[in-house]
Amino acid sequence: MVKTYRHESLLGFFKGMSFPIASIAMVNSVLFGVYSNTLLALTATSHRERRAQPPSYIHVFIAGCIGGFVQVYCLAPFDLIKVRLQNQTEPRARPPGSPPPRYRGPVHCAVSIFQEEGPRGLFRGAWALTLRDTPTMGIYFVTYEWLCRQSTRDGQDPSPARVLVAGGFAGIASWAVATPLDVIKSRLQMAGLKRGAYRGVLDCMVSSARQEGLGVFFRGLTINSARAFPVNAVTFLSYEYLLRSWG
Ligand SMILES: C[N+](C)(C)CCCC[C@H](N)C(=O)O
Predict the structure, then answer these.
(1) ipTM above 0.95, yes or no
(2) Exposed e or buried b for every residue in 151-187, given b needs 16+ CB within 10 A?
(3) pTM assigned to the model
């Protein structure tokens, strides 16, 4: 944090955020929409009926995995642009004559990737993202449901405080499992800049572990968990209460 602040001031912390903020609404509505509709197809219960007739954890897991799988295709290009911009550090005062940053902003970044790496370039790392999100979104929804049911009497709606706590821990639990593939995904997304860096997911895993030890698979987990708690607490609270007031 100190280094980022010294080098890039407060703005450095928000690098690459305009795109994720604009895209998060779309990505989350795809995730939660596919999740809820898959549960409807599997259990024939709507969101409202699910308190009285709770779905089995297997159904929750399958619906979460399918939701995770589908949302990857909305998330992948936005996530790639975020990673590319976050990894581009710019000093506060650029010495005169030094080259300008490679990407001038999210739109310029998207256009450059499209031109330099082709349309498929925008989906770089999407396979690692699919591997990261499919099972861990299942874990995300199962953890949330389990924690809600632990603390709520059968058939009753969980209180807002419980929804917040269950959502927060669901975020942490799923990130704990997702972090190894998150590290690999980000490396593959960055590798598009240098030709032939990795041959694929497995190659990236093996060479990262060889060079940096197994600890590499947990890089960023602490800061990600600190972020995941409030983010996912609010996400689930919004989901529950928006559906309750509209459904
Ligand atoms: C499945 N995985 C762990 C990758 C993400 C789960 C939480 C997703 C949420 N939008 C967030 O940004 O925290």
Answers:
(1) yes
(2) ebeeeeebeeebbbbbbbbbbbbbbbbbbbbbbbbbb
(3) 0.87
